[in-house]
Amino acid sequence: MLEAKNKIGNSYSSFKNVSFIWAQDKKNLIGNSQTLSMPWPNIPEDLAYFKKITWGHSIVVGRRTYLNLPSKPLEGRKNFVLTSEELNDNQIEIVSNLNELKKIIERSPSEKFFIIGGKQLFQATLPWVKWLYQTIISGFFPGDIYMVKINYSEFRLIKQKTIFSKANYLVNFNVFERLED
Ligand SMILES: NC(=O)c1ccc[n+]([C@@H]2O[C@H](COP(=O)([O-])OP(=O)(O)OC[C@H]3O[C@@H](n4cnc5c(N)ncnc54)[C@H](OP(=O)(O)O)[C@@H]3O)[C@@H](O)[C@H]2O)c1
Question: Using CA of residue 38, residue 42, residue 43, residue 45, what is the dihedral sign?
Answer without folding.
Answer: positive
